[in-house]
Amino acid sequence: MNNSTYPIGNPGEKWNNNHKLQWLEAQKIKRSYNDEVLTLINELKDTLIVEQYGELNYAQNSYPLFALKTQHFDKNKHTVLITGGVHGYETSGVHGALRFAKTLATQYAEKFNLVITPCISPWGYETINRWNPEAIDPNRSFYEGSPAQESALVMNYVQSLNTDLIAHIDLHETTDSDNSEFRPALAAREGKVNTNWNIPDGFYLVADSNKPEPAFQKAIIECVEKVTHIAPSDENKQLIGVPQEQFGVINYAAKELGLCMGLSDATYVTTTEVYPDSATANPEECILAQVAAISGALDYIINK
Questions:
Q1: Which domains does the chain have, with CATH numbers?
Q2: Which InterPro entries match (predicted)?
Q3: Are 163 and 264 a contacting pair, CB within 8 Å?
Q4: What's the pLDDT at 1?
Q5: Residues with active-site annotation
Q6: Phi/psi of residue 167, nearest 5 degrees
């Protein structure tokens, strides 16, 4: 599929502001950030610190942004960042972060200071979208002077904590809609010909090619495969067009690509990729896979 088949834009031409407005007007609210996310955050106020770190004010709506922190931050403990909903449409990233916060965060608070931002892109959550209303991908926008408010606000918040991170786990999904909608839209926006990738059937990880920490990634895979299946590589020994570094793991240049997992200098970083469209998966399994990824990462650090 190439951008000539996408309903917005002209083949070979980048979108102008009118095209972006046309795209925005086609987006519809499909679920409620307030009902499905904020209510769950409010339920955690008795066990975790809930901090508002910003607000997104779009013409369609205003969205308060919240972080969850374990109580009694201790400078003698390592601090771990868990992020979800950078791509709002990736549902288990949001609800995996919230489920971990509800069920396991206080247990791990004995070893770590935990910071959880469960839904960085609430407009994307409500419209089931990869981009923000300005047709910007927040997960390519984690750099100084970011054009995405979602990315800039969470970066500023993490910096305000004034603490070094030992680890950062960023929760994502790879969905069939990547090929049916989001990659064609990206090609149209950039005036390029789209080439779809093979959607991996199962869970996989994206490590930072500058600090891959393969043993750390392997420990997460081993924990997650108790919950859901790990994606095999394709006939080219690749996942999403990238060579497989080890079973279930590929490497990306996090900082160079502006990825969320590159926002800090943490030693241990990873991006999870759950496959919710698998014939054998269900929403609960996807959430539990995210929780398993977090606990596997933390257990590795504890036992190292």
A1: 3-303 (3.40.630.10)
A2: Peptidase_M14
A3: no
A4: 37
A5: 273
A6: -150, 155
Per residue in 86-131, pLDDT tens? Answer: 999 999 999 999 999 999 999 999 999 999 999 999 999 999 999 9
Rounded to an integer, the average pLDDT of 127-150 is 98
What is the distance between the alpha carbons of residues 296 and 218, in angstroms, rounded to a whole number? 9
Token pair in block for residue 61: 């709506």
Q: Find where tokens 């392997």 sit.
A: 218
